[in-house]
Amino acid sequence: MKKLIALLIIVMVMVTSATVADADDEATEGVDIMIIIDKSDSMNWNDPDTETLEATYQILTLSLGTNNRVGFVVYNDTIIAYQGLQVIETQDDIDEIMEELHDIQISRGTDIGLALQTASRQLEMDSYRVGRTAIIFLSDGWFEFELFNPNRNQDDVMADVEDVVTNVSYPIFTIQYSIGYDHQSPKREWGEQTGGGHFTAGSSDEMIEAVTEVYQAIIEDAGVPVESDEVHEHQLIIPIPHTETERTERVEVTLVGGGLIQGVVLPADHEYITVDIAGSNYIITITDPGQESYTIYYRSFSETPLEYNILTQMVDIPPGSAIPWGMIGIGVSGIIALIVLVLLIVKVMKKQKAKKQYPTFNSMLECYFMEIPTGTKAIPIQSWSASFLAVSKKISLGKLLKNVALRDKMPEAEKIFVSIHDDNVILVDNKAGIQCYKDGKEVMEPQVKLHNSEGLYMVFKKNTIEIELRAKQSSLRYPK
Q1: Which helix (H) or strand (E) holds 333?
Q2: Which of 161, 247, 298, 304 is most buried per CB count within 10 Å?
Q3: pLDDT tens for residues 49-74?
Q4: Do 47 and 196 fall within a single domain?
Q5: DSSP assignment, residue 452?
């Protein structure tokens, strides 16, 4: 009989030891996180884009596929909603929680004491893991109680706060999000008193940075075993291809983890992005992407970026939905026509301005040519008003004769420049070096001034192409 009792005792000890060992093995992984979320009226203007909910989403995502247990308490001057600790196993778990949180309206006053007491009590009920538990308090920092609840006052609130902060065995991390206002809240002291910390944020990036730092501190304090002492953040840019006839319906990115991934941080606009765990790999799915690319961050214990595979599913664009290149072409043509019209209007305005600027200059430069030795009478082939020359500042004779077929036979005309001056003088700059005559005498200087009734005789091809430029008083007079 004694031998039988001794044998039973040995068996019980072995079973008990095995149970304790299993519990210890389970305790070496995962942490317990209770999130407290402020939904009081002040969040309307301090957190209009609900960055506190984005922070909650990031915490849930970082806990996806781990042995973490996450719960939450939502408060104003009452407790609006709460959930005990649970393991986040799938993306559906995250979506279900976030849908509930987004449906909660911001309203009423603030009771941080009631929020802390509820979170602490819920952790006790869920048998939180000692040394592996933390509270993350997300708010705008406002702490003064407002009398929507007639049964409590500010002293009651602060007494509850003091009771929790003094007696808890786990750290409290406060993240204060506010745009342009820094509440000097006693929450700042909770981190120092409990072994946690206080963080402030005023933008989405700052909020993500604060959440990541808090999560990392909780993991490190809990002594969760990792393959490396340092966590690295990597950027993953996912391109979204498209063609004229096809669009991207779905993109699936498999991030090959190998046990190194600590968490994935999605962009703020993550309505159509999901994350699932497949073994040690993370599968990021983008449905009906509306951007040319998406940037996703992930944290891992690998210093170098991890390998990943991208699977893209394309679908045909319905004929009526294709990009209307024909309409776009018509639109571009219309824009070009409008630009041309504007340029013409500007040119006309310049001419009008020149007429007003030179009201006393009424000379017109006329060009004559004569075929020699036929002895034919000089025939005028082109003329230009003084206002035209004033607008053009300096123009070649070749351009002035652009509508004259003779121009093709005298390429030197491109190097002869004509301009008008304020003193009613036309200046001819002979950079072509052709022979020129004025008043029957050859002109040796490259520049010749022509006053009213004066002319310059230019020989391009002797006895073939000879042209006379002459300044003469115009019959047109512009009003002053």
Answers
A1: helix 325-357
A2: 298
A3: 889 998 999 899 888 888 899 999 99
A4: yes
A5: T
DSSP 475: S
Task: Please indicate, yes or no, whether residues 153 and 95 belong to a single structural domain of this protein.
Answer: yes
The domain that contains 171 carries what CATH number? 3.40.50.410
Fill in the amino acid letter for 293: S
Q: Which residue has the tokens 């849908």?
A: 99
- Residue 7, in any domain of the structure: no
Could you give the CA distance from residue 165 to residue 201 in angstroms, rounded to a whole number?
A: 23
Is the bond preceding 373 in cis, omega lying within 30 degrees of 0? yes
With respect to residue 418, please indicate whether it lies within any of the assigned structural domains: yes
The span from the CA of 32 to the CA of 216, in Å, is: 13
The answer to whether the CB of 416 falls within 8 A of the CB of 428 is yes
- pTM, entire model: 0.52
Same domain, 282 and 369: no
Rounded CA-CA distance 198/183 in Å is: 13
Q: Write the pLDDT tens digit of every residue in 201-221.
A: 888 888 888 898 899 899 888
**Do 348 and 303 fall within a single domain?**
no
Contact 412, 384 (CB under 8 A): no
Residue 111, CA distances (Å) to 146, 159, 350 in order: 8, 11, 73
For the chain, what is the total number of helices (H) and then of strands (E)? 11, 23
Residues 174 and 89 in one domain: yes
Residue tagged 């990392």 (tokens): 216
Whether 5 maps to a domain, the answer reads no
Residue 401 CA to residue 392 CA, distance in Å, equals 14
Give the strand pairing for 363-370 and 465-473. Answer: antiparallel
Residues 81, 74: contact at Cβ < 8 Å?
yes
Let me know whether 343 and 362 are in one domain.
no
Buried-state track 62-72, b at ≥16 Cβ within 10 A, e below 16 = bbbbbbbbbbb
Helix axes 154-167 and 112-125, enclosed angle (nearest 10): 40
SS3 for 382?
Answer: strand
Say if residue 101 is in the same domain as residue 193. Answer: yes
Q: Distances in Å between the alpha carbon of 119 and those of 51, 93, 112, 378?
A: 21, 20, 11, 108
Residues 117, 232, single domain; the answer is no
Residue 341 is part of which domain span?
324-355
Q: At what angle do helices 51-63 and 204-222 cross, to 10 degrees?
A: 40
Q: How far is CA 192 from the centre of its chain?
A: 37
DSSP 249-272: EEEEEEE--TT-EEEEE--S--TT
Q: Is 411 exposed, middle or buried (0-12, 13-18, 19+ CB in 10 A)?
A: exposed
- Inform me whether the pLDDT recorded for 392 exceeds 90: no
